[in-house]
Amino acid sequence: MKINQFGVIETTFEQKINELTSIGFYDEKIQAAISKGSVPLLQELLEQAATSTTVTTKFDDYMVSEQQDLATFLATGQQVTVREFDALALQLLNFLESIDYTLADPEKAVAKIGLPLHNKPGEWDTDDVLNAWYDLLTTHTKGGLQLIDELVSHQYFKATNQSLFFNGKALATFDTNQLIKEVVYVETDLDTDDDGIKDLVRVDIIRPTTSQQVPTLFTASPYYQGTNDVQSDKKLHDVNVPLQRKVPNDLTYEDIAYQPAAPKKLTAHEQTGEATTATETFYPTSHVDLNNYFLSRGFAVAYSSGVGTRYSDGMQDTGSPEQVISMQAVVEWLAGNRTAFVNRKSGVTIKAHWSNGKVAMTGKSYLGTLATAVATTGVAGLETVISEAAISDYYQYYRDNGLVIAPGGFPGEDMDVLAELVYSRMQDAGDWHRTKTQWEQFQKQTVIDMDRTTGNYNTYWDARNYLKNVSNIKADIVMVHGLNDWNVKPRQVFRLYQKLQELDVVKKLYLHQGQHIYINNNRSLDFSDQMNLWLSYKLYDVENHAGEQLPDLTWQSNQAPETWETRQSWGTTTPTKISLANVQTPVSYTDKQTKLAYTSYSQDYNHWRSLMIDRDAHELDHSRVIFLQPKQKQDLLIDGEVSLQLRIKSSTNVGLVSAMLVDYGDASRLTTKPVPQGSQIDRGINWQPTPLVEFQQAKTTPNKMITIGHINMQNRENAWRVNDLRPDEYVDLTLTLQPTLYQLTAGHQLGIVIYGTDFEMTVRGNQKITYTIDTKHSQLLVPVVPSE
């Protein structure tokens, strides 16, 4: 087992004493014990901790060596050394003897696990014991919490409903049994339902009962008020359709650039008075785990689904500027800069009097997408964003290089399908009856605008490309993304990360080996602690130097479990050119499948993909070309975007190219879904426990897809310009694959698989198209960093 803690800050001895005093570990009894030596001090500290059920005063239940229990050790009055303390610390942290450590050499286990404990040779004085005790409290237990958090969750002290910080992080001192749940309706400057009146959006707020003003974690989630799964599934598009030829054009970006419409003159809601308390409450549904963690630590949490959702006005329009503006309005109200009402009818307004005006936006996927999008408005009050698996450009989600592309695992989904899923106004019969006709017309227009026929980038998509507005960002940004996320693919965070390098804002990036997941309950990385450090700094002004303390880039190694490394950058390596001329030239493959195979692959695209990358399975030899490199003599790191430069021709006047970069070599690779570890993490004091999880090594496999890419041969110049394509005429194109950060092991081979139809992601025309590659004029560009 290995634990990686990046959220522990160094403090002076004086600061440690002050903090130990603030939480009750340094008082008159401790001062009296200090005068008696290091052993009485250690005993007194243990007895103080025993007010929590985590620690026992049955000292003979602890061992300090193979021969001596703690009770005997304390009675002898011997001096404390690092060996005795480490042995005791491992037990207090719930590690198991003979499994996680041995009493013969506890220091070895401490180093191997990575525990940030005090380490001083020789006999310890009382200052050493106090230093060691402070460091122990900041150290993670085997169960996934800092020891101080575990003590608090076992009621080391009663909730005070006032903020208390330890090692720069907020403690769970707020009583979650006393949380206030209230509803407000924020007035926007939108009229998405064309009734001439400003749209209202509902906001659900959960906040601690306290006399102090608190900051807010705001999650913008169109899913929050419910989803229409049956209706949405009925709208899934048929992907078993042929690739269509497109009429060539000479479009420039200026021809399709989005320009906001002039603001409308709208009627504001009448204001009849002002209230200091809300009149509506709600029953909490499923909430974001990271938000739950902060509720017990003195942060309010707000959720809104925005326009076009249940209890709000307007039409639902996936990723649109209007959707973003509706969420921006919520930030403005939380910061004290916008009007909200206690209900939809009375005209009674309400302010966020409990708010200190500072807001962070949090969430994964659609939630993180809207957090990123709101940040690009530059809205005042938004101090930071924690966006996980977020979209930065919707075209790159449902389209790519002139192709209609499905997010991994969701063939047939598109912008209208997602909008149907979250138009939760249809869940109330009356509201649905009133809006049904308008909604159906709205959806018809969406289908036209999103244009599945050509797959080209157009004005509709340009309006949903948040990368264009990155220069407006004033908030500091934390980004989290899975390098095996084929739903929201890695390019989404890579392009945002690259753009942010131009700005004078703090940007932190976490790259893990998972799919489309949260990592806040991971055992080997203290992500929640780090975000506690970060938000205590950003929203409570705690001087904990979080900007310098947290790594700029944290990467989970794909070679070894529980290994998180820090890096300075991503994607800055100069590519290495690899020729494809080591096989015959030209080389051809054909896209057509038998009727039986076509049906089988359409129903089970995972099986199709496993066959496509398996060099020893010959069922799809006719539909692919595999270029293999020699076995690696040393490890190498692939850092950034791999590009495939091809001279290729199609036997007809349409064509698409797909490619997968593959690691060939037997290995026990990490799971892309974290595995529950059999224990729960408490998010406060008996509050919202969540499973502790970890990426584990799976059974040995002969290969792994590293990354993937697709392009329409008619969009070889860019996504809006359509080039001509003539049968059997070579064209030159560059296909840039999804970015990666991947360690290729010595003895493995790097392979590129080139093919046509991708049964999971592209349309499945099953057209009889033969593709031919001129390998002498084709090459692979791989940004590699050799091992040192």
List key phrases describing it.
alpha+beta, 11-stranded mixed beta sheet, 6-stranded antiparallel beta sheet, Xaa-Pro dipeptidyl-peptidase, protease, single chain, Rossmann fold, cytoplasm, 25% helix, 788 residues
Description:
The chain is an alpha+beta fold. The protein has 22 helices and 32 strands. It has an eleven-stranded mixed β-sheet, sandwiched between helices. Helix 1 packs across helix 7 and helix 2 (28-34) packs antiparallel against helix 3. The model has no long low-confidence stretch (mean pLDDT 96).
Helix content: 25-40%
Number of strands: 32
Q: How many helix segments?
A: 22
Mean pLDDT: 96
Rg is 29 Å
Organism: Weissella paramesenteroides ATCC 33313
EC number: 3.4.14.11
Protein name: Xaa-Pro dipeptidyl-peptidase
Subcellular location: Cytoplasm
Mind sketching the topology for me?
Elements: H1 13-22, H2 28-34, H3 38-49, H4 70-76, H5 82-92, H6 106-113, H7 126-137, H8 147-153, E1 165-166, E2 169-170, E3 180-187, E4 200-207, E5 214-220, H9 229-234, H10 253-256, E6 273-275, H11 289-295, E7 300-304, H12 321-334, E8 340-341, E9 348-350, E10 355-364, H13 366-375, E11 382-388, H14 395-398, E12 399-400, E13 403-404, H15 415-422, H16 429-450, H17 459-462, E14 476-482, H18 491-500, E15 507-512, H19 527-540, H20 546-549, E16 553-556, E17 564-567, E18 576-579, E19 587-590, H21 595-603, H22 605-613, E20 624-628, E21 636-640, E22 643-650, E23 656-670, E24 675-681, E25 690-694, E26 697-712, E27 731-736, E28 740-744, E29 749-755, E30 770-773, E31 779-782, E32 784-786
Helix pairs in contact: 1-7, 2-3, 3-7, 15-16, 21-22
